[in-house]
Amino acid sequence: MGGREPALGLLGEDRPMSARTRTTRARPGLLPAVLLAVLLLGLTACSSGKPEASPSTSSSSSTATSAAPAPPAPPPAHACYDLDFAAAVKATTTEPPVPCSSAHTTTTIRVGTIRPVVDGHLLAVDADPVQQQIAGRCRRALAAQVGGDEETRRLSRLTVVWFSPSLTDSDRGALWFRCDLVALAGHDVLAPLPRVTRGILSQDGALDRWGTCGTASPAASRFERVICSQPHSWRARATVDLPAGAAYLGKAAGAAADSACHDVDAKLAADSLKLHWSFEWPTKDAWNAGQRYGLCWTPDPA
Predict the structure, then answer these.
(1) Are 80 and 169 in the same domain?
(2) How many helical (H) and strand (E) elements, i.e. helices and strands, does the chain have?
(3) What positions does the domain Septum formation-related occupy (predicted)?
(4) Any alpha helices (H) in 98-163, and if so which ranges?
């Protein structure tokens, strides 16, 4: 896999120290494979005058050439694979596809071509502009595949990973990338996927199965992030956008977000005098990757 989505926890799912649970009774969350530039080696033999040949012999020359091996074909589109988490976060893979009717954990949602020339320069596939190009194309493929609105996708445990050619294959001219849909069941664990994934977040109750839930409040030491189809006691109910200019874990932005989460719980709670909620900042890795929203959590005894 060439890339990961830090906003959804693929970089470790560690939670920021600012996650707090509030209660109120009185008032109503790369590609490391390197594409090397092809060096054109010009071999030029120069001589002056005509070569002398023996009158009793004839001169002949032959050059043995061997064609460079062709790059391997791109991976198949719309294939399924039964990968574990460790295999899904590698830069490349040689695992064969499995029938989509059998158990599998990843589904290929796009196969495309890397565009390594940026602003007239040939870049390695691990250069930031190339990584961003592939990440953007895979994220767009994810949105088109699973459907739902942006809020639903933010709250789901569905994300995208991508693979690229090996170093040897990229040297031979392979320029493909592969985007795979995955579902995070828990920390470093993938959930099985259904045979048909097109539009799964557009279905009624999609987040009951694919949403982000927790085994406890995100502020608790025993908290583990799990997919909502597994046993849980808290649920990520909504997202709160943070100001673009806010400092990470900034007090003013955190207080405003905390107030917004209070309002979310006030609308859901059966007793408006007994509210419990928690606002969770994005992880530092997700923040550095550009995520500017946090999660509002409330208890969910389902």
Answers:
(1) yes
(2) 7, 13
(3) 155-296
(4) 128-146, 150-155
Same domain (yes/no): 216, 190: no
- The first and second tokens of residue 225, run together, are 């992030």
Contact 182, 190 (CB under 8 A): yes
Domain assignment present for 11: no
Both 184 and 269 in a single domain? no
Residue range(s) defining the domain that contains residue 178: 74-194
Longest dimension (CA), the chain: 114
CB within 8 A of 216, min separation 6: which ones? Answer: 222, 223, 224, 233, 234
On whether residue 29 sits in a domain, the answer given is: no
- Same domain for 138 and 250, yes or no, is no
Q: What torsion, rounded to 10 degrees, do the Cα atoms 240, 244, 247, 248 define?
A: 50
Which residues, other chains included, contact 200 with Cβ-Cβ below 8 Å and sequence gap of 6+? 146, 147, 158, 194, 206, 210
The per-residue pLDDT string of the chain (302 residues; one tens digit each, 9 = 90 and over) reads 455 554 444 433 555 544 555 554 433 333 333 333 332 333 333 334 444 444 444 444 444 456 678 888 899 999 999 999 999 998 889 999 999 999 999 999 999 999 888 888 888 777 788 888 888 999 999 999 999 999 999 999 999 999 988 878 888 888 999 999 999 999 999 999 999 999 999 999 999 999 999 999 999 999 999 999 999 999 999 999 999 899 999 999 999 999 999 999 999 877 777 789 999 999 999 999 899 999 999 998 76
Q: Can you point out the beta strands (E) in the chain?
A: 20-24, 80-81, 106-113, 117-118, 121-122, 158-163, 176-186, 189-190, 212-214, 225-227, 234-241, 275-280, 293-299
Residues 177 and 280 in one domain: no
Overall domain count for the chain: 2
Evaluate whether 132 touches 38 at the Cβ level (below 8 Å): no
